[in-house]
Specification:
This protein has 393 residues and is an alpha/beta fold. The chain is 30% helix and 22% strand. The chain has eleven helices and 17 strands. The longest helix has 24 residues. The model has no long low-confidence stretch (mean pLDDT 94).
């Protein structure tokens, strides 16, 4: 242990901390599952937006990383990460300028995504101007109903059009499943349906003579179900998976079965500002720290409400506390027992660690994350992917 490291008590609150033991365990589990399934792991980094955590994932066995918006790729490339997949299709001059900037970096492999010919044609023009073929995947919608063309014949028709574009190197297809019932059986079913549609589409492409060896599927809630399918060699066409949130975990993904509660690595460290009311205490973090995601989509699950209120997180080590009233810069954490014993009462100045509902939102509002181990700060991570920190083109 480094005796000179910052003690946890020296961190100014509110702040986001990440338990290094839990983070490393999550990274190791993701890599192990992918390795046993015989596929590449390309974690989505939207949960942390941090190049140093991405490097830990690559050191743990990931083949590269994935980002959502193209802007998020800049900080990762600047940090020396050399294999980046941009998961969201993009369009417009500003986005293309960022693409050019990325393509100018020696040794950097950038793979882009499309689900419309209009996006691909713009990227094609960039590739032609640079005298190179830009790797591209076709995003296929297997039921998430966000980006993507439908699987089967619609995907085959679009893939053929992409293959005819100069300046494009068509690589294959990409699926990101979502939805499903938050039960083990529901996740098994969702994983099977997504893998089946992806592989059926890949087989159609091969039958039609369309080159495209890349077939990726995956999401955090279906990580274990997908890897179990692939470990059984049922879908040998699938080459890559791309879960993201289970690196860090949050209460959303506890409910979605992506993480156990103890596998949530991040928490908001906050301080009790007032204990004047016997029914609750007031902390120095509100929705400007936690975000405002109440996870209302899970309102029918048992324990979602207490006294008519949803929670904005879960207090570490205190199941008797309910963080259920939140405003801009403060929040109330309520005692669930009507008259708690003196030993259970919080005092002004006490600190709480609260696992947020949506860690992506929480981390995106921070400039740094404190990596802690055994009561001290082991390292400080920069949240370089924050939108307001993205370098200008």
């Amino acid at each position: 242990m480094n005796e000179k490291r910052m003690p946890l008590s020296a961190i100014e609150t509110p702040a986001v901390i990440v338990n290094m033991d839990v983070l490393e365990s999550n990274i190791a589990e993701m890599s192990r599952l992918a390795r046993e399934a015989g596929v590449r792991l390309r974690p989505h980094t939207k949960i942390h937006e941090c190049p140093d955590i991405a490097k830990l994932q690559i050191a743990g066995g990931a083949c590269g990383i994935e980002v959502g918006a193209i802007e998020r790729a800049l900080c990762m490339a600047e940090a020396g990460i050399d294999d980046i997949l941009i998961a969201h299709p993009f369009y417009g001059d500003h986005k293309l300028a960022i693409l050019r900037r990325l393509l100018d970096k020696p040794g950097l492999k950038i793979t882009v995504m499309a689900d419309m010919i209009e996006q691909a044609e713009e990227i094609s023009r960039v590739g032609q101007a640079l005298g190179r073929a830009i790797p591209m995947l076709l995003k296929v919608n297997t039921g998430g109903d966000r980006f993507g063309v439908r699987p089967g014949e619609p995907a085959v028709r679009m893939a053929k059009r992409l293959c005819r574009l100069p300046g494009i190197a068509f690589q294959g297809i990409y699926v990101h499943e979502s939805g499903g019932n938050p039960t083990p059986e529901g996740m098994d079913r969702l994983a099977l349906e997504a893998a089946t549609m992806a592989v059926q589409t890949a087989r159609l492409l091969s039958k039609e003579g369309v080159p495209g060896a890349h077939v990726s599927v995956g999401a955090s809630p279906t990580l274990r179900a997908t890897c179990a399918l692939l470990k059984g060699k049922r879908f040998p066409e699938i080459t890559e998976i791309h879960p993201g949130h289970c690196t860090i975990g949050d209460m959303w993904h506890v409910r979605a079965l992506a993480n156990a509660r103890e596998a949530c690595a991040a928490a908001v460290l906050c301080t009790v500002m007032s204990a004047a009311d016997p029914r609750h205490v007031v902390i120095d973090a509100g929705y400007k720290t936690f975000g405002a995601d109440s996870l209302i989509q899970y309102q029918d699950m048992p324990g979602f409400f207490w006294q008519g209120k949803p929670s904005f997180g879960s207090v570490q080590g205190r199941e008797d506390l309910w963080p259920g009233r939140i405003s801009a810069e403060t929040a109330c954490v309520q005692y669930m027992e009507p008259d708690p014993a003196p030993a259970k009462r919080l005092r002004i100045g006490d600190r709480l660690e609260i696992v947020p509902n949506n860690a992506t939102l929480t981390i995106s509002m921070q400039e740094k994350i404190y990596g802690v181990r055994r009561g001290g700060v082991e390292r400080i991570f920069t949240v370089a992917g924050r939108k307001d920190r993205t370098p200008a083109v």
